[in-house]
Write a structure and sequence with these properties.
By secondary structure, the protein is α+β, with helices and mostly antiparallel strands. The protein contains 18 helices and 57 strands. Helix 5 packs antiparallel against helix 6. Belongs to the G-protein coupled receptor 2 family. Adhesion G-protein coupled receptor (ADGR) subfamily.
């Protein structure tokens, strides 16, 4: 044990001595290169005993210039070998310095066996030598030769080629016309050319091809070289470069000579005698010879001189002897003979028209003995030898003159001579009347014949006078003239119907015959008690008119007359008058004012222009003198805020005689009794519609002297002041008082509205009228028949809705999800229709009317939203018919539907009120404003719902027809197509789809659509009651039970009551 411990001790000691020895030896030799930071970058560290040293790597140089260095502060700097001289890469190269190295590349056109991008240290030696690009094919283009240069090459075009846009193109020597001699053709070839003499020419040296100058191409004389080149009977003609062949005279070749086919040219003899016509002419014989021909005349003919080239045979003329034919005959030579014919006016003695030989004579014809005579009527015929002479009887003449002989120019016709064209034929005051071959004289109108002298007739001595009563007749030579007594003027119609009438106005006796109501008040007539007030005012008006009519020779005071009429109008009260009496009184007042004004114009006072103002009427009058001499002159008249404008052209067109005057009158208060009840709208007969109108101006009157009162070319402009400001929805109508319509009515004929403002209305009329403004509302009121239909239909619907609501509430056996929907729709419809009937016309209170319109907006929107719910529920019910007795629509809670059916309409109304509160209530009904677009707050949702309901109903019908075959046998009776169609048609009305008819109330179908829309939609409540109650079998049983008071067991199946009246609707229980 002890020895073991001793051994262990010595072991520990040995290990300790070895460790200590190792640490000591390590402390003696330290390797400084083990630290990488000992030397700088790009330097190599070399350890030495007890030390070290640094050397820069190849390509770097120490900053202190020593090859071996030590310590800090020394760095290795890169050596730029490329800056050395000579450069290390050698000639024709590019040196690029790199960190510690360099890179060599050859210049373009040079290469190195070591390749480009050679870096120092790579194997091989970098040397750049020239590249011979010409050794490669295709370096230069075609027709070019390559020439190598140091580092490059160049291309040069070959001889005969020229460079153009880096392409060697052939030089076209033939482009220069001087390249080849005359009569030679130049042929260009690549790099060269050649000249060839043209056909018919040859070179002077005998060469086929020429090159360069010095030689010429001379003509070849083919005819001299070969005399028989053209053949027999022909002529060869040499021409420059060629020759031509032609036949001798008398010969021809069927083929034209051409150098290409000379063998086809053969000259043969021409047979001139076979020609047509013959060259010898008629009446001759032609004899053909070789190359020519000869002519000989037939018997009876002889040749004319001129040779064979112009040979003709002349006939022997027997008529050359003047004794061949007798006197008064004509000789006609014929071929080998002759014949004689008598001249015009003669006949042959043998009766033969053409004769020959002696013994025949020509005898004169007596044309005057023919019938009818050749000279015509009213003439004298005289026969002469071979002819005849014509002369006209006395009183006739011919354009060819008398003593016309046959053969003279022109045609002889005797026409009557009008002696009356000559002056002085008849004596004074007589007119000439031409007759056939003569004339006669007749005294002119106003003269009478006495001893062949025309004496004047004194027409004014006749009884009665031709001028009529109240006139003056003045005799004139051959006539007479009429003039009227003072206070009268002639009536239109001329002197034949001359009459005189009072000027220029009507008096009482002129008015009475025209009106039966005026005749009641004649002096001496028994006036009934009820007409007393009427006649009092009528007679007071006539008294003013009589003052003007009776004092014709004195000046009428317009001022006193106006004041008299003002007092009459002041006491006028028509409250107890009939409409006919009011019309008659107004007509008389208007006529009397016009007549007295015209009477004042008849003898005008010193005041040429007057303005007279009273409380009841105001008048401005003006005498027109020299003012209308100015071009486009216009006169303005004003009275009580109203105005009339008339031009000189209209005044001149009125044909006023004597004094010309114009007046304008405005009546205050007359519009109160000549009100809108007298208006007759000719554009819209009352049988179709009644227009809401009101009188909105004073009655005015235009007065002008002159016969013409209407149909003027230039209109008369009236500007009338509105009694009440014009509203935007009102439309003014210019009306005139027409006494020919029912004794007196306002009509719109003759005048149109030019301009309308809030305060004034401008009318343009083509007549002098009594005028006023009637204001019509912007639209027509409802047709009375439509009014009755709508109100009766809504009353029926209200009754039916009450019955339906009662049925849905009290009949518990039919109460289900669907009947609740029907109940809400019926309640909304009932409230909407009831409020419409009772409150739509309450327009007097604007706030109340706006509230009614808001409730109607909400109730009708609620109706349509419940219609939408019904359509959706119906669709969901039919869609799930694949699972019997199961409808997913029953899982929708009722209060959700109520929020939708009542909440969304309320939201729409609330938004509408916030955006445009003034959109509720109109001037004529308590409804939404239709003029500002506010109506779309109702029409927008309604149109959307109608479209959705129509789509859902159509979709429902399609699904139903597809699924009917799969429904169980309990509902097999739904296959009846007629029942399905009828219920689908009725569903259109219940779901509001019929409201779409309101959109089509335009054009020619508007009236029909209006009736359909009114009838169908006013009866919507009745349709609901009929479909959901009367046609529901279970409801029918309940009605029978109530009527008969019999208790029957309830049915286990409940009908839907919408469209599928036989589909069970009990809920799914499993």
């Amino acid at each position: 044990m002890w020895s073991f411990n001793l051994l262990l001790f010595w072991g520990y000691c040995g290990i300790f001595i070895w460790v200590m020895f190792s640490l000591e030896s390590m402390a003696v030799d330290v390797n400084e290169c083990a630290d990488t930071t000992t030397c700088p970058a790009y330097a190599k560290c070399t350890d030495t005993p007890d030390s070290y040293y640094c050397t820069c790597k190849r390509g770097f140089l120490s900053s202190n210039g020593m090859e071996q260095f030590k310590g800090p502060g020394v760095t290795c700097i890169d050596i730029d070998e490329c800056s050395q001289s000579p450069p290390p890469c050698g000639p024709n190269s590019v040196c690029e310095n790199l960190l510690g190295r360099y890179k060599c590349n050859c210049l373009p056109g040079f290469s190195s066996p070591t390749g480009n991008n050679w870096i120092s240290g790579n194997p091989g030696r970098f040397v750049c030598t020239d590249i011979n690009e010409c050794l490669s094919s295709g370096v230069c283009q075609e027709h070019a030769e390559c020439i190598n240069t140091l580092g490059s090459y160049k291309c040069r075009c070959q001889v005969g080629f020229i460079s153009h846009n880096s392409i060697c193109k052939d030089v076209d020597e033939c482009a220069d016309p001087r390249t080849c001699p005359e009569h030679a053709t130049c042929h260009n070839s690549p790099g060269s050319y050649s000249c060839v003499c043209n056909v018919g020419f040859e070179s002077s040296g005998g060469k086929e091809r020429l090159l360069g100058s010095g030689e010429i191409c001379g003509d070849v004389d083919e005819c001299a070289r070969n005399s028989t080149i053209c053949g027999l009977n022909s002529v060869c003609t040499n021409i420059l470069g060629k020759y031509n062949c032609s036949c001798l005279p008398g010969y021809f070749s069927p083929a034209v000579w051409t150098p290409e086919k000379p063998e086809d040219f053969i000259c043969t003899d021409i047979d001139e005698c076979s020609q047509d016509p013959s060259p010898c002419g008629p009446n001759s014989v032609c004899i053909n010879t070789l190359g020519s021909y000869s002519c000989r005349c037939n018997k009876g003919f002889r040749p004319n001189p001129g040779g064979s080239s112009n040979f003709t045979c002349q006939n022997v003329n027997e008529c050359a002897d003047t004794t061949t034919c007798p006197a008064y005959a004509k000789c006609t030579d014929t071929l080998d003979s002759y014949y004689c014919t008598c001249k015009r006016g003669f006949l042959p003695s043998n009766g033969v028209k053409q004769f020959k030989g002696p013994g025949v004579t020509c005898i004169d014809i007596d044309e005057c003995s023919q019938s009818p005579p050749p000279c015509g009527p009213n003439s004298v015929c005289e026969n002469i030898l071979g002819r005849y002479k014509c002369s006209c009887l006395p009183g006739f003449s011919s354009p060819t003159g008398n003593d016309w002989i046959l053969g003279n120019p022109g045609r002889f016709i005797c026409t009557d001579i009008n002696e009356c064209l000559s002056s002085g034929v008849c004596q004074g005051h007589a007119e000439c009347i031409n007759t056939l071959g003569s004339y006669k004289c007749r005294c002119q109108v106003g003269f009478i014949a006495h001893n062949s002298i025309c004496e004047d007739i004194d027409e004014c001595s006749q009884d009665p006078s031709p001028c009529g009563p109240n006139s003056v007749c003045t005799n004139t030579l051959g006539s007479y003239s009429c003039s009227c007594l003072e206070g009268f003027r002639p009536n239109a119609g001329g002197s034949l119907n001359f009459t005189c009438k009072r000027i220029p106005f009507k008096c009482k006796e002129d008015v009475i015959p025209d009106n039966e109501w005026v005749q009641l008040c004649q002096v001496g007539a028994a006036v009934e008690r009820e007409h007393g007030s009427f006649c009092t005012l009528m007679n007071a008006t006539f008294n003013v008119l009589d003052d003007a009519c009776e004092n014709r020779n004195t000046v009428v005071s317009l001022k006193s007359t106006v004041e008299s009429f003002a007092s009459v109008l002041e006491q006028t009260s028509t409250s107890n008058f009939t409409k006919e009496e009011t019309s008659a009184l107004a007509t008389v007042v208007l006529e009397s004012v016009k007549s007295t004004t015209l009477a004042a114009f008849l003898k005008p006072s010193a005041n040429v222009s007057q303005t007279i103002q009273t409380e009841q009427l105001e008048i401005e009058s003006k005498i027109i003198k020299e003012e209308c001499n100015e071009e486009n002159m216009t006169f303005h008249f004003k009275a009580k805020g109203d105005e009339m404008k008339i031009g000189c052209s209209t005044i001149e067109e009125s044909k006023s005689t004597g004094t010309t005057g114009v007046a304008f009158v405005s009546f205050l208060g007359m519009e109160s009794f000549l009100d809108e009840s007298f208006f007759q709208d000719q554009q819209m007969p009352s049988a179709i519609s009644q227009r809401k109108v009101k009188m909105n101006s004073r009655v005015v009157q235009g007065i002008m002297t002159g016969e013409k009162k209407d149909g003027f070319s230039d209109p008369i402009i009236y500007t009338l002041e509105n009694i009440e400001p014009k509203q935007e929805f009102e439309r003014p109508i210019c009306v005139s008082w027409d006494t020919n319509v029912e004794g007196g009515r306002w009509t719109s004929s003759g005048c149109v509205v030019l301009e309308a403002s809030e305060t004034h209305t401008v009318c343009s009329c083509n007549q002098m009228v009594n005028l006023a403004i009637i204001m019509a509302y912007g639209e027509l009121t409802m047709d009375f028949s439509l009014y009755i239909i709508s109100h009766v239909g809504m009353i029926i619907s209200l009754v039916c809705l009450v019955l339906a609501i009662t049925t849905f509430i009290l009949c518990r056996s039919i109460q289900n999800h669907n009947t609740y929907l029907h109940l809400h729709l019926c309640v909304c419809l009932f409230l909407a229709k009831a409020l419409f009937l009772t409150g739509v016309d309450k327009i007097h209170n604007k706030m109340g009317c706006a509230i009614i319109a808001g409730f109607l907006h909400y109730l009708y929107l609620a109706c349509f939203f419940w219609m939408l719910i019904e359509a959706v529920m119906l669709f969901l019910m039919v869609r799930n018919l694949k699972v019997v007795n199961y409808f997913s629509s029953r899982h929708i809670k009722m209060w959700y539907l109520c929020v939708f059916g009542y909440g969304i309409p309320g939201l729409v109304v609330a938004v509408s009120v916030g955006v445009q509160p003034q959109g509720y209530g109109m001037h004529n009904r308590c409804w939404l404003n239709t003029e500002t677009g506010f109506i779309w707050s109702f029409l927008g949702p309604v149109c959307t719902i109608i479209v959705i309901n129509s789509i859902l109903l159509t979709w429902t019908l399609c699904i139903l027809r597809q699924k009917l075959s799969s429904v169980n046998t309990e509902v097999s009776k739904l296959k009846d197509n007629r029942l399905l169609t009828c219920k689908a048609f009725a569903q259109l009305f219940i779901l509001g789809c019929s409201w779409v008819l309101g959109i089509f109330q335009i054009g020619s179908m508007a009236r029909i659509m209006a009736y359909l829309f009114t009838i169908i939609n006013s009866l919507q409540g009745a349709f609901i009651f009929i479909i959901h109650c009367l046609l529901n079998r279970q409801v029918q049983e309940e009605y029978r039970r109530c009527l008969t008071r019999k208790i029957k067991p309830s049915s286990e199946s409940h009908t839907s009551g919408i469209l599928l009246s036989s589909v069970p609707s009990t809920s799914k229980t499993d």
